[in-house]
Amino acid sequence: MVLIPARMSEAEEQRWVNVMLDKLAAQESRRAFGDTELAERAERLSAQYFDGRARPRSVRWVTNQNTRWGSCTPSEGSIRLSHRLQGMPEYVVDYVLCHELAHLLVPGHGPGFWRLLEAYPKTERARGYLEGVVAAARSPHPPEVRDE
Ligand SMILES: [Zn+2]
């Protein structure tokens, strides 16, 4: 239901309806893939590719992360994904999630880390996609998947 204040002109009324519809659509898209869905997705990916051994305590989107697609703090079990990934293909978001989940099990980017990540079948494809995004942006400080 969209309530309209009394005594609006037809034009005002239409504008009001459009504003309300835009707000609803924005809420809808946030609900469709917010932090809750991100955490559920991480849980599903962990179960599917890492035998459920990667158990993050928090998984969330962040907007203050401009040099990394994703990051994690293993001691806290927290994973953060850059909001820049929003709107990218699901397999790319899943790759970054898998990458950070794998860091909960193996720190650094040694052979053991990449062997673990081979479980996710679209790792190479997703890395290629992200490299392409970076190349296209031609930013002096391109974002990349990188962690301490
Ligand atoms: Zn990493």
Percent helix range: 40-55%
Q: Unreliable segments (pLDDT under 50, ≥5 consecutive)? A: none
Mean pLDDT, all residues: 85
- Strand residue percentage: 5-15%
Q: Kindly report the oligomeric state of this protein.
A: single chain
With helices defined by DSSP (H or I, 4 residues minimum), what is the helix count? 5
The helix/strand class is mainly alpha
* General shape: elongated
What is Rg?
20 Å
Question: Major beta sheet, specifics?
Answer: 3 strands, mixed
Order of adjacent strands in the largest pleated sheet: 1-3-2
N-to-C terminal Cα separation, in Å?
Answer: 49 Å
Unique bound compounds: zinc ion
Structure description:
Helix 2 crosses helix 3 (90-105) and helix 3 (90-105) packs across helix 5. With 148 residues, the chain is mainly alpha-helical. Helix content is 51%, strand content 9%. It is built from five helices and three strands, in the order ααβββααα. The model has no long low-confidence stretch (mean pLDDT 85). A hairpin with a 4-residue loop joins strand 2 and strand 3. It has helices spanning 10-32, 35-49, 90-105, 111-117, 123-137, and strands at residues 58-62, 70-73, 78-82. The chain has a three-stranded mixed sheet with strand order 1-3-2. Residues 99, 103, 109, 145, 147 line the site of zinc ion.
What would a concise description of this structure say?
The chain is mostly helical and 148 residues long.
Keywords:
single chain, 148 residues, mainly alpha, 3-stranded mixed sheet, 3 strands, 51% helix, binds zinc ion
